[in-house]
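Progress narrative, work stream C.
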Amino acid sequence: MWYGVFLWAAVSSLVFHLPAALLSLATLRQHKMARFMPVAILLMSIVGPVCGGVLTSAAIAGVYKAAGKRMISLEALVFGVGQSFCVLIISFLRVLATL
């Protein structure tokens, strides 16, 4: 049950980070040091779901298991994409707070 939520979180995280990596690759390719920024962005698209996504997916699955409910694929999609969307919103709000 947790695996479905985790996979959707990982895929949606990659979908959110891939355009940012491509944009930074296109704009920073001439820079001496910043040309490696797309690698860091793509690594974060994998490391984030592996570290935090596994824990939150297991917590969601634990609640479903304790309630005795069965999770359908659409619910896994909603929870997985919701996790990535929450991370995206929190990231933007954290950057705006420093301005």
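Work stream C, second folded protein:
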Amino acid sequence: MTGTRSNDPAIQLREDIATFFRRLRAQRAEHMLTPSQLQALGHLERGGPMTASTLAALEQVTPQSISRTVALLEDAGTITRQANPADARASLISLTDHGRRMLSTDRERRTRWLADALEADCTEAEREVLFIAGRILRRLGTGEPRT
């Protein structure tokens, strides 16, 4: 990052995390799905079939926003919609085999980049610090209590 860095540690950390995630996102596979589309596919992979409102809540976006995402994913053949037996007004969204493959390819590519970067650019001590920081960031992101 160029320019003057803030003396506020929280601002510095946020900027550093954003810089890292921009670089990680740049490693996406050629399928050109957006980060939000990939994240939605990930929720469907982990949670199984769900309604658009459930997916919107997991994504922390508006129903209108998730509706656009779902439509694009359906057009790409990565998800399907089917009748919800519990609620005729809503459909269940499911991951297709094609969607599962795209998600897997994307994850493998990013994981390979990260593993290579950790090996080439970090000492063993730095890797350990990053693994600890990763657990802390997960806890902060999920709202889990400190143990």
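The helical segments are 9-25, 35-47, 52-59, 63-75, 97-121, 124-142. No further action is required on this item.
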